[in-house]
Structures are given as structure tokens and as C-alpha cells.
Amino acid sequence: QKEVEQDPGPLSVPEGAIVSLNCTYSNSAFQYFMWYRQYSRKGPELLMYTYSSGNKEDGRFTAQVDKSSKYISLFIRDSQPSDSATYLCATSKAAGNKLTFGGGTRVLVKP
Amino acid sequence: DVKVTQSSRYLVKRTGEKVFLECVQDMDHENMFWYRQDPGLGLRLIYFSYDVKMKEKGDIPEGYSVSREKKERFSLILESASTNQTSMYLCASKDSFNNSPLHFGNGTRLTVT
Fold first, then answer.
1. Which of A52 and B105 is assigned the larger pLDDT?
2. Are A41 and A103 in contact (CB under 8 A)?
3. Which of A27, A77, B79, B93 has the most CB atoms around it within 10 Å of its CB?
4. Residue contact B40–A42, C-beta within 8 A
5. Which residues are bridge partners to A80 per DSSP?
6. Helix, strand or coil, per DSSP, at residue B63
7. Using CB atoms, which residue from A44, A95, A103 is nearest to B104?
């Protein structure tokens, strides 16, 4: 079993819809949680960074962590075609420590 | 803006060849990483380096080695390429602050035939 599981998709939504992405993880030692966005033919770029349980909002993006369920989520409100990308969750046991990535979910936002 | 440059976008090599993948970063970052990315498996860490001439094994180091002779350059070496090393290879760099993000290059798509 992989330490971080993520549905590969693709997840197709109409423009303006809410995109809901999630990952599950197995190791309770994970404390730091990140979401990376990867456009086609590009390297991943950091989108959101959270520590422990709770919510974090940045513009149209909201990251949620539920450590009791070992479940992390990313919500994209008012989705745009430019949000079409692969979204990767990542976790680590300590700040600056090695990251463990999920497999990524491909998202398509249709105009 | 941080720039991480990988020397080749696409490479095609034959089984048994020695392959060099080069990565250069321009932000004086202490830490550099090599990942491979395969469908459904996400990014897996091959090797990383915290300083010049220093290297640490990641999760899947078998069949690979690395070299870091200068701070800005981190090379991944496939000593004898095999078909199961066909993959997308991503280089990343990071400064020494714990919460700072990884900065990735755009990847090298390696095909071993």
C-alpha cells in the first residue's frame, strides 16, 4: 500500500464549478501537507502549504486537513479553464523533511 | 524568480548506455533533489544533496548515482540504462529554511530502448 493515495482522475468539471480533490495517507507521523499544481510539460509548483489539522484559504483555493481521518482535501472555487492541470498532494513528517507525494489527479475544466 | 534548468527536454538512449542528466539552479540553494515521475506512482525521490560533494539516497536509488561538484549543479547518472528507467525525471532545489518550497525544473523525458 502506498503511503499517500490519490485518485488519478481525470476529473472533468464545467467552468465555474467547485473542484474537490482529496488524498488519504497511512502514516500518522505526517504533520505537513502540501498541494502542488503541474501543468502539462512543466514541473510541479507549490500551491498550498498547511501544518497539522485545519483549513487554509488562499483566494479561490482552500486546503483542509483532517488528521483523525488521515484525509487531506483541496477545493477550487469558481474553477477556470486555466485550472486544468494535475494536482499532487504531498506530506512530510517534519518541516524541511523528505516529501512523500501522491500519484496526482488530472483536472479538466471545460469552458 | 527561481530558475531550475534541466539540460534536455527529451532523451532517447539504448540499454546499457551510461546516461547523464544535468540540472542547474540559479538561486544559490543548498538543497537539490532528483525525482522520477511515473503515471499513478507520483514523484519518487531518487537522490538528494544538502551541500557540495554531499549526497543522500532517496527511496529508489538503485541503478542511479549523482554528482554535485558545484553548488548550482546536480547531475543524475544512470550507470547502465535499462528499459525500466524510462520515465520523466524532475530536478528540484530548495533553500535551507524548513518551510520553503521545492522549485522544480520542467523535466527530462528519458526513453531507454
1. B105
2. no
3. B93
4. no
5. none
6. coil
7. A44
Angstrom distance (rounded) from CA A20 to CA B4: 30
Residues of chain A positioned with their CB less than 8 A from the CB of B4: 43
CB < 8 Å to B45, chain A = 98-99
A109 to A12, A80, B86: CA distances (angstroms):
6, 6, 30
Cell of A3: 503511503
Tell me what pLDDT residue B75 has: 97
- A6 at the B interface (CB within 8 A)? yes
Residue B68 in this model has a pLDDT that exceeds 90 = yes
Give the number of A-B residue pairs with CB atoms closer than 8 Å: 52
Q: Mean pLDDT throughout B74-102?
A: 92
A109 interfacial to chain B (CB closer than 8 Å): no
Instruction: For residue B106, list chain A residues with Cβ-Cβ distance below 8 A.
Output: 41-43
Nearest to A3 by CA among A37, A28, A34: A28
- Per-residue pLDDT tens for B92-110? 998 887 778 889 999 999 9
E strands, A1-111, in order:
4-6, 11-14, 19-25, 32-38, 45-51, 54-58, 61-66, 71-76, 85-92, 100-101, 105-110
- The region that residue A69 occupies, defined by phi over 0 for left and psi between -120 and 50 for alpha, beta otherwise, is alpha
